[in-house]
Write a structure and sequence with these properties.
heterodimer, A: 388 residues, alpha/beta, 7-stranded mixed beta sheet, 3-stranded antiparallel beta sheet, 10 strands, globular, B: alpha/beta, 17 helices, 51% helix, 10% strand
Chain lengths: 388, 409
């Protein structure tokens, strides 16, 4: 980057100017935005990664400050989503309450929020209901632009509602209850998806294999748990996963299941790669090219694995397929998170704070999804079938 | 019935003793056996498809267990199961849409059937739901609902059928229709398997150009027909045949090619890397093609594929549709390989002192694998009877030919 463009000089000029943040009017700005005015970097902290950090129980001092500041500034900010005004119903609140549960995926929380919208709605035709849901979906998406599975989940549900309303039903109530039932069942679908993925991947783990894992994916954890329950003999190498320290958490959980675990620092991946038989990662989102967006470091590991001919397997539920086609790393919405270096960093020094990277499909071997074991080229096919 | 059992037992025996050579012959015999099983199978009046599927699955499991390395057996069993499901589905949706398929029935009775016990969903919804159970799971159907909701109208329609007046005539004609359709489908499958060589050879002219040098390994009837078809269309080219030790089937292929007038050169397997820079294209016949696009071929093809990749020579694989396997190779070197007798390498009597385990001194081991696995990134093109495809496209063909429920037998 330093050789190809002198853009860093331009960026520095831009950063010194005062910034104004624009947000959509009917959504409460995320708490971190309150800090954005004083922050030289215009991009807010990604709410998605904040939640993941919260799930992992990692609380940095910076994040805590921001949360406290937010509570002080916006004690009860409501946003009304339903067309009937005067009712204090907030999709964002619903979504947040579901999202805090560590076992629930983002998309599931979003769809649960939609279920609440349907329950609270007073629409009398499918079209009205659809419009309400569209508004709720746009609100959620605008609130956290960085979360891919949230966007994908919202889109999937909206497609389903559109398709359902296009069919002829005798009366509106049965249609509404059908859609509501599906929305509430989606949590079950998601859990079932994880179990299907775990079953599909059992054949690929042979006795005596060494698996490298990066990041704390609940799907990958389910896979390892199922293998341990099936009395397979294998060993896991966890990367430390700075700065979230996901590796330590995963190691703790795996140790509870009596799986032999070894922790590596992130830089030791190439060093240990020759004793690894396969790499397992989860995904925050699966993009149209068949590549994945996952925690920072996944691309690095995939490159090393590819150069040493080790297979890289991705475990992702199908509702994470998103209609994005990033051409390089900077093509994504910037999702930042605070990087705690444990030592004070002088303010003149820039810190790369992106939370995720994009791994192109040529470095991935297979995708394990609830639709079956897929090669990366199948993803675009599925998306075309759904959206076009 | 006992006649069918004895036929099945005989075939299982033949498979176990490896008496049938070649995937095409095995596939054809398997399909013909399954056709007899289906025609002899007595089906109940309700849920006939399930009975047929169970019968075929039971026989299929025995056959696959007899020769697990011959993937064509499992492939055609799954094809037949897919045919049964498809025919059943088309019959049910046609009946539900109110089309007058049955030869002897009154229109009044059909209307009565539709009225009795029908759930409060339009026929289009039900048909769509039923169709979705046949296709592999996809993003579209993720939220649609579980297959139970699709089978409810299923049984209710057959229940409604039984309540109609002309019930016996309807039922028996429905039974005959399903079996008849299935057997027709199976006959089509047999035609397809027998005709795969011609279909593939038709495409030869597009791929082989004037004055080219082709490399092949071992002996494959598909490759032979392919090359001869190009020769007949007046293309002149040369063929290098790697002999394919230890069976030396390359020698037979070379003889055949010379008999048809092609200029042929025989080389040893070890000379492949040396000659690859002078070759324009490598053409191989596959034993099986896996769902990820990987190829199981005669031993030595992996080496040829690696050499071709290094010198940027296109590596073309010919495979009939009965060779497409919906399974993924988890551990292909071990699971799908067969070790043949070491006598093909060493004559009896040679090295007998080293091979004698009783003596205790020095144990010489001889490994004679039959197959080789080529990963998908080394293959440039697959030519099947439906045309030329990318390795990353194979999953599509597999989704078309097989149902997701039949993958585990």
């Amino acid at each position: 980057m330093w050789r190809s463009s002198a853009s860093f000089i331009l960026d520095k000029h831009l950063n010194n100017k005062p910034i104004s943040i624009t947000h959509s009017i009917d959504s409460p700005p995320p708490p971190s935005d309150s800090m954005a005015d004083e922050n030289p970097n215009p991009n807010p902290i990604s709410a998605y990664y904040e939640t993941r950090a919260a799930h992992h129980g990692i609380v940095t001092s910076e994040w805590l400050e921001q949360a406290q500041a937010a509570v002080r500034r916006y004690p009860d900010h409501d946003c009304s989503v339903s067309p009937v005004s005067g009712r204090p119903f907030s999709v964002i609140e619903e979504f947040n309450s579901w999202r805090q549960q560590p076992d629930l995926a983002e998309a599931v929380a979003a769809i649960r929020a939609f279920a609440a919208v349907i329950r609270a709605s007073e629409a009398t035709t499918m079209m009205e209901l659809e419009i309400e849901l569209k508004k709720a979906s746009d609100t959620l998406k605008a609130w956290d632009t960085t979360s891919i599975s949230l966007t994908a989940g919202c889109d999937l549900f909206m497609r389903y509602v559109t398709r359902t309303s296009a069919l002829e039903f005798e009366d509106f109530n049965s249609a509404k209850s059908r859609v509501l039932g599906r929305a509430e069942k989606f949590g079950v679908i998601s859990c079932k998806a994880r179990r299907i993925i775990a079953i599909l991947s059992q054949d690929f783990m042979f006795d005596g294999c060494t698996i490298l894992v990066h990041g704390f994916s609940r799907v990958v954890f389910e896979i390892l748990k199922t293998s341990a329950q099936n009395k397979k003999l294998f060993r896991v190498l966890c990367t430390e996963g700075r700065p979230d320290k996901t590796g330590v958490l995963l190691a703790k959980e795996l140790a509870k299941l009596d799986i032999p675990v070894k922790l590596l620092i992130d830089s030791a991946v190439a060093y240990s790669m020759d004793e690894v038989d396969m790499v397992f990662v989860g995904a925050d989102g699966v993009v149209e090219s068949g590549g994945i967006i996952n925690m920072m470091g996944t691309y690095q590991i995939a490159l090393v694995a590819h150069s040493m001919n080790k297979p890289v397997y991705v475990a992702a539920e199908s509702y994470k397929f998103a209609r994005l086609y990033p051409l390089d790393q900077k093509d994504l919405e910037p999702a930042l998170r605070p990087n705690d270096f444990n030592v004070p960093v002088p303010p003149k020094v820039e810190v790369e704070r992106s939370a995720r990277d994009y791994t192109p499909p040529q470095y991935l071997t297979l995708l394990f999804t609830d639709l079956g074991v897929l090669t990366p080229s199948v993803v675009s096919d599925e998306l075309i079938q759904l959206y076009l | 019935m006992p006649d069918v059992q004895s036929m099945v037992a005989e075939f299982v025996n033949k498979l176990r003793k490896r008496k049938i050579e070649g995937s095409q012959a095995t596939a054809k015999c398997t399909v013909e056996l399954l056709r007899s099983v289906i025609s002899h199978q007595r089906v109940p009046h309700a849920n006939q498809a399930a009975a047929l599927i169970d019968a075929v699955k039971a026989v299929g499991q025995q056959l696959v267990a007899a020769n697990p390395v011959e993937l064509a057996v499992g492939n055609v069993v799954r094809r037949v199961l897919h045919i049964i499901r498809e025919e059943d589905l088309s019959l049910t949706t046609a009946a539900m849409a109110g089309l007058d398929l049955l030869d002897a029935s009154d229109d009044d009775d059909i209307d009565n059937c539709k009225g009795i016990g029908y759930p409060a969903m339009s026929a289009a919804v039900v048909a769509a739901a039923a169709r979705s159970t046949l296709r592999p799971p996809s993003l579209q159907t993720l939220l649609e609902g579980t297959p139970e909701s699709a089978t409810v109208p299923y049984t209710s329609s057959s229940g409604a059928d039984s309540e109609s007046k002309s019930k016996s005539a309807d039922k028996s004609s429905l039974t005959r229709k399903l079996k008849h359709d299935v057997i027709e489908g199976v006959n089509q499958l047999i035609q397809e398997i027998s005709g795969c060589h011609e279909q593939i050879a038709e495409q030869a002219i597009e791929h082989i150009h004037q004055n080219e040098v082709i490399l092949t390994l071992g002996s494959s009837r598909t490759v032979l027909e392919f090359l001869c078809a190009a020769k007949e269309k007046k293309r002149s080219f040369r063929v290098f045949v790697a002999e394919g030790a230890p069976r030396y089937q390359g020698h037979l292929l070379a003889k055949e090619l010379v008999a048809r007038g092609l200029q042929t050169t025989v080389i040893t397997d070890s000379a492949v890397f040396a000659m690859i820079s002078r070759v324009n294209m490598v053409i191989i016949g596959a034993h099986a093609v896996m769902a990820n696009g990987g190829v199981i071929g005669p031993v030595g093809v992996n080496m040829a594929a690696l050499a071709a990749k290094k010198h940027a020579v296109p590596f073309v694989v010919l495979a009939g549709s009965h060779k497409l396997c919906p399974l993924y190779p988890h551990n292909p070197e071990v699971l799908l390989n067969e070790l043949r007798s070491p006598s093909e390498l060493l004559d009896f009597g040679e090295f007998s002192d080293c091979l004698d385990f009783g003596a205790g001194s020095g144990s010489l081991q001889v490994v004679n694998p039959t197959f080789d696995y080529v990963p998908p990134n080394l293959v440039s093109l697959f030519i099947t009877d439906t045309g030329g495809h990318n390795p990353s496209y194979m999953y599509r063909l597999i989704a078309d030919y097989y149902s997701a429920d039949d993958l585990v037998m």
